[in-house]
Amino acid sequence: MNEPYQSDVLFLLGFTLAVFALPVLTILAFRWLRPSHPGRLKGEPYESGVPQASIPRRPFHMAYYNFALVFIVFEVETLLLFAIAPVLRDLGWVALGEVAAFVGLVALGLFYAWRRGALVWR
Amino acid sequence: MLVERWISARIQLRVGPRHTGPYGTLQTVADIVKLLMKEDVRPVQADAMAFRLGPMLTAVPAVMSFAVIPFGAPLIMRDLNVGVLYFLAVPGVTAVGLLLAGWASYDNYSFLGGLRSSAQFISYEIPRTLVVVGVAMLAGSLRMSDVLEAQRSVPFVLLLPLGFVVYIVTTLAEINRTPFDIPEAESELVAGYHTEYSGFRWALFFLAEYGALFAASGFAAVLFLGGGNGPLLPPFVWFLIKTLAIVFLNMWVRWTLPRFRSDQLMRLAWKVFLPLSLVNLVLAGLVLQAVN
Lengths: 122, 292
What we know:
The complex is a heterodimer of chains A (122) and B (292).
Chain A: H1 3-29, H2 63-84, H3 88-91, H4 93-115
Chain B: H1 2-11, H2 27-37, H3 48-64, H4 83-89, H5 94-104, H6 108-139, H7 144-150, H8 156-159, H9 161-174, H10 186-189, H11 199-225, H12 235-254, H13 262-291
Helix pairs in contact in B: 2-11, 3-5, 3-11, 5-6, 6-7, 6-9, 6-13, 9-11, 9-13, 11-12
């Protein structure tokens, strides 16, 4: 926990707030300038001119769930790689072998998901 | 944006904007003013809070990612020691924004569009991130300036050509541009997640897309092309040339290729680009040993 680390966090905090504030203020400022005539028909969801055929708050395709699960597995593995990647240069062959073994495991996981059909959109 | 219109007009042999200002240069300004003055329509049944938050969560990360881009030697807002990771993590929030916008609109098109875009986003996120791991290995740091310093003699595109290609294509997919713009496929989903948006909120989605395009191209220029490194010209000019070259490539592809189908898109991400990015990682390891 050295000094630059804390000032980085402070900077990011301020920057985030500023970037959020900009569109909010613009929207609020132009509230007085733009027209606003809400109506019953205007407030209906757009469905190419016909009344809404089904309610959008409904169960959706199972395939999204599969991909979400596989995504979480691989994303975590990738993040673990980020922890070691920058120092790999100075660690030499042994560390590289260990990382290769880890990547091999990841590849094995991909192979498994592939064979089990988790990567097919059904 | 104006340049995109010029390029699209040129490639598809039609006339771009010509009448607003000299050679149509003021067209974008006119558009912005018009969008600001437009009525802000919200469907009655839409979830008001989520409807407002959606475009914000899409646009804000795109702008925030500029914080760590080195625009040339001293021009960087903040040279974080985890800059590379920051650039990958912050735009990730966009997926939430798209999903939220699509869900909140209470519209079938938006709902499907939101689901598809976040599914696509997270699928292409993995090969893209893995490629960047390779760069981090070679650079020996996650700090942007160190990544640049490591390329002083040889830009990484020569060491990891495969990684560069994978990065460019997956980036195209992540920022939802043709041929990967299924989420907003006009011919089947009207406009996807932003069907119900109008005026300034709609503009935020486009701000997000163009912001992400420039940020990701700048990032590619830094990671693979050596950013501001180059002879004679000042670093900023070099950075700009490289970034704009990649932006142009993006626009060229957009106006040339047709669109993929949704399932083809997912197959491409998981069965082609993910294995390729693992291969790239192995190559990066070999290159690392060769350099040592």
